[in-house]
Amino acid sequence: MRKINYGLIVSDFDGTLVQEDGNVSEKNKKAIWQYINDGGKFAISTGRLHYGILPRTKELGLKGLVSCCQGAVIVDIESGNFIQNNPLSHEMTLAICRKMEELDLHYHVYGFEEYYSNKDDEALRWYERAVRHKAVLVKDQPLSEFVKEKGICSYKILAMTPPEDNAEIMRKLAEENFAGCLITKSADVLVEVINANYSKGTAVQFLSDYFGVPLEKTIGVGDQWNDLPMIEAAGLGIAVKNAAEELKAKAVVCRYTNEESAIAAIIEKYGYTEE
């Protein structure tokens, strides 16, 4: 058995571990399981909510913890128990929804068991295929009114935007100064408003403590701007080849994309010592 070098690898899911067709390559699966069998710890940190990622972690046969919603939610994979559970307040959820509607955006509200969409279009169907979880469509009233009536405290609020409008929408949302919130993006077409007290960076720190692996011996791997806190917090921050250029500028860049089993290559290169 080879000696482990970095004892904990925390990977983003979409655009990093998973391929564009929604599958994880056999090469990645084999590398992850060999690394775990050799004593390493492997965890996923994603912007998805627990109901969007738990089925995928179970498909991979992973155990331990998974970080969801940019670190605001951490769940035990086997039991489904919440280790951390930090939604936005109802008042803040409502304020963000109203701003989304003022900007006439297609947006989603992520509740405890479901996520809700204000529009039924091709963008929604693309998103549902990507996350393999259907939205609850709210068409008979503004989504903000539905949120108000149901008393929903959202874990995040996501706007689906054309890539060319992304930066401007982020700027307009940031101008609102939503207290305790962070405006970020998880893809060129996805702008998110999340709890600023939690991030993929705080998740790496939590997982490091939980698994007893020194932070300097952790690896964080991602592809989008919302992965930056993880890249910065981990002992070694790596961007896959297909990552956003702004993330690559802050990280070690892998030679391979998510389509080329980048995680397997990273495990092989950094997961073990040269001894």
Topology, element by element:
Blueprint: E1 8-11, H1 26-37, E2 41-44, H2 50-59, E3 65-68, E4 73-76, E5 82-85, H3 90-102, E6 106-110, E7 115-117, H4 122-131, E8 136-137, H5 143-150, E9 156-160, H6 166-174, E10 181-187, E11 190-195, H7 200-211, E12 218-222, H8 228-233, E13 236-239, H9 245-248, E14 252-253, H10 262-270
Parallel strand pairs: 1-2, 1-12, 7-8, 12-13, 13-14
Antiparallel strand pairs: 3-4, 4-5, 6-7, 6-9, 9-11, 10-11
Helix pairs in contact: 1-10, 3-5
Written description of the protein model:
The protein has helices at 26-37, 50-59, 90-102, 122-131, 143-150, 166-174, 200-211, 228-233, 245-248, 262-270, and strands at residues 8-11, 41-44, 65-68, 73-76, 82-85, 106-110, 115-117, 136-137, 156-160, 181-187, 190-195, 218-222, 236-239, 252-253. The protein has 275 residues and is an alpha/beta fold. The strands form three sheets. Strands 8-7-6-9-11-10 form a six-stranded mixed beta sheet, covered by helices on one side. The protein has a five-stranded parallel beta sheet with strand order 2-1-12-13-14, with helices on both faces. Strands 3-4-5 form a three-stranded antiparallel beta sheet, sandwiched between helices. Helix 3 runs antiparallel to helix 5 (143-150). The termini are close together.
